[in-house]
Specification:
The protein is of the alpha/beta class and about 475 residues long. It contains 16 helices and 11 strands. Bound molecules: glutamine (GLN).
């Protein structure tokens, strides 16, 4: 197992099920790798919380069900906004310092029930607000592929844990691209399922109509396996959808005849970096050589996606974050009256970006501005939903685009919040519409990974993942420009 950091979850689980290896060995490899790459606070700053004694105990005492499960003995990492028993859940915020949840997120319990061992909680932008994992109360995470660069965000710690070879699978969350964008920046696979496909129970709410739990893997098969395990109805989340989950880990199609892939022109603007356009077009050319029809399509309201997202998401977050008042969760600030205590808790507890979102959200929901901003943003959201529905109704099976307009940027390079918001220009549409989407590595530009994005109709994760497998197989070896 010398190459344990490149082992897939599929291979680990198979060897544990066959009795060829013990979960404790895989856990030991995850720790050794984390120590080698410097996953701690002074290094890549990937892991916020871990409890090695507890994880070891879990690995030693895995019951028969878990030892034979689809993720038997697979070490996994979990973003710090998914609640876990035994480990803190802080959303990388001072306001939740020391908070340990009395219940566990459904996605995490399902991983455990399938045999996975939680290795730790990963760094993130505070409350998942950000695109670089620089806005954490615990300092930035570094990109394992280029440590002076950001890993993307907000699920940057989870993406980095997979890219660094510590774990084969990690959970992240998405409100506007926080799994796909860091997957692209770190050169791994990141999947956001259809809204409702995976329970949000135990995912600390940012913007409830946009929030999703997502999965990272080094390979498409591992990401599919992780998604397979966590997907499906959950009575603890009223928005989870009671619909059978098909087999997501199915075989490669050998021909793409009859498959129509849309290339939305708004995602290939003139200003797109030529090397990114070239990588995407090379992938599309290969898909067409395998028999797919590549069709130019249009999603005309794409340029309104960021403006409407940055009204709707802050509006919902201002309501969701009202609960952090020093009474119910985490840390209590100083103050000699109730109001002063609330104010002290929130002023000391929240970072600047979170404060910006709460102020913006409160403003757009205020009586005087609701119609001008929030109502209008919701109308734009409906236009974007119509664009997407129309393209898929015209016979397109999937859309292919760049995941991000640029590769990873250096830590500290983007200080203007609006410029940061633009990193999600190609990803937010899938959150506003709830469709499944994913990022797959498609090569490198100037030594940094680049991701290609697939978007599919609602509940078509299986088709999207099989197409991703084809892309993965054609990109291998031919991806550098
Ligand atoms: N970068 C976006 C934001 O800051 C999306 C974050 C996310 O998907 N959680 O809101």
């Amino acid at each position: 197992m010398a190459d344990a950091h490149t082992s897939t979850a599929l291979a680990i689980a198979e060897s544990v099920r066959a009795g060829r290896s013990h979960p404790r060995e895989h856990l030991a490899f995850a720790w050794a790798r984390a120590d080698d790459v410097g996953a701690g606070r002074d290094g890549l700053n990937i892991t916020l919380w871990e409890d090695r004694a507890h994880s070891r105990h879990e690995a030693e005492t895995l019951n028969a069900d878990r030892r034979t499960g689809p993720l038997a003995g697979v070490p996994v990492m979990v973003k710090d906004n998914l609640t876990t028993l035994h480990l803190p859940t802080t959303c990388a915020s001072r306001v939740l310092a020391g908070y340990v949840s009395p219940f566990e997120a459904t996605s995490v319990s399902r991983l455990r029930a399938a045999g996975a061992i939680v290795v730790g909680k990963t760094n993130m932008d505070e409350f998942a607000m950000g695109s670089s994992t620089e806005r954490s109360a615990y300092g930035p995470t570094r990109n394992p592929r280029a440590p002076t660069y950001v890993p993307g965000g907000s699920s940057g710690g989870s993406a980095a844990s997979v890219a660094a070879g510590i774990v084969p699978i990690a959970l992240g969350s998405e409100t506007g691209g926080s799994v796909r964008q860091p997957a692209a920046f770190c050169g791994i696979v990141g999947v956001k399922p259809t809204y409702g496909r995976v329970s949000r129970y135990g995912l600390v709410a940012f913007a409830s109509s946009l929030d999703h739990v997502g999965v990272f893997g080094r390979t498409v098969d591992d990401a599919a396996l992780g998604l397979q395990v966590i997907a499906g109805a959950d009575r603890m989340d009223a928005t989870s959808i009671d619909r059978p989950v098909p087999v997501l880990t199915r075989e490669l199609a050998d021909s793409l005849c009859g498959i129509v892939i849309g290339r939305p022109r708004e995602y290939f603007p003139d200003r797109l970096q030529p090397a990114i356009r070239a990588r995407c077009d090379a992938v599309l050319a290969q898909l067409s050589a395998l028999g797919a029809e590549v069709r130019d399509v249009s999603l005309p309201h794409t340029e309104l996606a960021i403006p409407s997202y940055y009204i709707i998401a802050p509006a919902e977050s201002s309501a969701n974050l009202a609960r952090f008042d020093g009474v119910r969760f985490g840390r209590r600030g100083a103050g000699d009256s109730l109001a002063a205590m609330y104010e002290g808790t929130r002023r000391e507890g929240f970072g600047d970006e979170v404060v910006r979102r709460i102020l913006l959200g409160t403003y757009v929901l205020s009586a005087g501005y609701y119609d001008a901003y929030y109502r209008r943003a919701m109308a734009v959201r409906a236009l974007i939903q119509n664009d997407v529905a129309r393209v898929f109704a015209s016979g397109v099976h999937a859309l292919f685009t760049p995941t991000t307009p640029t590769p990873a940027f250096p830590i500290g390079a983007i200080t203007d919040p609006y410029e940061m918001y633009l990193s999600d220009i190609f990803t937010v549409t899938a959150n506003l519409t709830g469709i499944p989407a994913m990022s797959i590595p498609i090569g490198e530009v100037d030594g940094l990974p680049v991701g290609g994005q697939l978007m599919a109709p609602p509940f078509e994760e299986a088709g999207m993942l099989s197409l991703a497998r084809v892309i993965e197989s054609v990109v291998v070896g031919g991806g550098t420009s």
